[in-house]
Amino acid sequence: MSFSERLRELDGHAQAELVRTGELSQGDLLRAAIERVERLDGSLGSVAITSFDRALAQADEPDGLRPEERGPLHGVPFLLKDLGPTVAGLEATMGSRFLKGFVPAQGSELTDRFEAAGLRVLGKARTAEFGVLPTTENTAQGATVNPWDHARSAGGSSGGSAAAVAAGLVPVAHANDAGGSIRIPASNCGVFGLKPTRARTPLGPAVGDLMNGLAAEHVVSRSVRDSAAVLDAISGPAPGDPYWAPPVAAGTFARAVAAGPGRRLRIAFSTRAGSGGRLDPACATAVRAAAALCAELGHEVVEAEPAVAFTDLVEPFLVLWAAGVSSAISSYALLSGRTPEPGQFEELTWELYEQGRSLSAAGYLLAVSTLQRAARGLAGFYEDEDERQGPGSRRGYDVLLGPVTSEPAPPLGTFSVGTPRQQLTRAVEFCHETPLANLTGQPAMSVPLHWTEEGLPVGVHATGRFGDEATLFALAAQLEQARPWAHRLPGPGHPRMETRSC
Q1: Cis omega (within 30 of 0) on the bond before 2?
Q2: pTM for this predicted structure
Q3: Taking a C-beta distance cutoff of 8 angstroms, is the pair 340, 356 a contact?
Q4: Which of 120-124, 271-275, 494-498 has the highest mean pLDDT?
Q5: pLDDT in tens, 381-409
Q6: Of these residues, 96, 108, 161, 181, which one is catalytic?
Q7: DSSP E strand stretches across 23-155
Q8: Which residues share a beta bridge with 221?
Q9: Residue 181 is a catalytic residue
Q10: 157 a catalytic residue
């Protein structure tokens, strides 16, 4: 096995440790990742834009830091999703023909924080056009395939990032999530993906809020500790942000990973059908097996579900979605000096753009108030015991387990069939209850615990209290230790996950 191949199964911490101890230089690590991208990505389609020379130049620049002053992921190869945060001077297309060749003059706060943590941006990962669909198949760049089955979807909209991490091109990659776009591709590709609490990470300087708070920025990764370390590095408001998430009770997310839950958690699980009225047996099996594992680890596990369901909130959610897509296209039209035309976009993207332009202010605010009312109704499911009610009163749940999607990774082309409205309906059905955490702002994650008999990964969804990513990280680390996954790689010569539950 080649040197570059051996690095594929190492997470970011392990790769950075090779640099810290002097076994490798940053340049060695980056050149190995570049070799993997050039050798393997032709069949995956995960990388949209490369910036190899820029990353190597950064690695060669003296940073003036002593080894002990560098973060746990210093020098690690990284991909930025081609949607959202920008790098000054590097093309940004948002997965659309409309922006082909557009080079922003300004970078993003989030990019600065990634790079301040020592992550080296090798390029941009492919995305669904403007993040619209839960698959990464855009006509501007082509399809990103699932590393475990090239006839299936890697998920979306962060499918390029998840496929690259799953295939071992890089150990961690940027992703964002306004309706499941971190967690869905993480589930499809068998990697770890956590959507943080609303406003945990900055969106500036271009915007302070996206889709009334639906969108959150973070990463997908091979390991839980990598995810926690990145969130520690990028968390916190930037000057002028409209609002921000509460402080981290554990001090740091890395500390929560190292310490574990530290107590018996109260965990609910549910396998109720989503908006499509169905749930694939493999997804239900994954949830029940995860619930059994949590009980085996000593937690209190109860089958229960909140009264609030995404099924009842699809229409107001789509109002925000259409408004967000329309706003994003209009913003980039101003930045690029271009005029949007229907032939430059996917049919569904253009329909959402036009729908968003036709919305009334009153209709938009009604949708916002409806979703905020639902969020308040859901909060009680997670509340702690109310001491005013006396001993024995009902205590809320720490975590809710459920499916990430209504089925495992579907075949490529699944979401391009029919009219734009039919495509959108199919996408909503596939997303199951996952967008609910975007509506409420709660942290949620996909944990890769299950593989089907056909060798497809199926993530398990876990939602926590608002502001409490620490509990999710602690539980995820405990699950990872019980059922490790980071060493699993698709492709010849590498073991697939066992097909038994968990």
Answers
A1: no
A2: 0.95
A3: no
A4: 120-124
A5: 998 654 444 444 457 999 999 999 999 99
A6: 181
A7: 47-50, 77-81, 120-125, 137-138, 142-143, 145-146, 149-153
A8: 172, 192
A9: yes
A10: yes
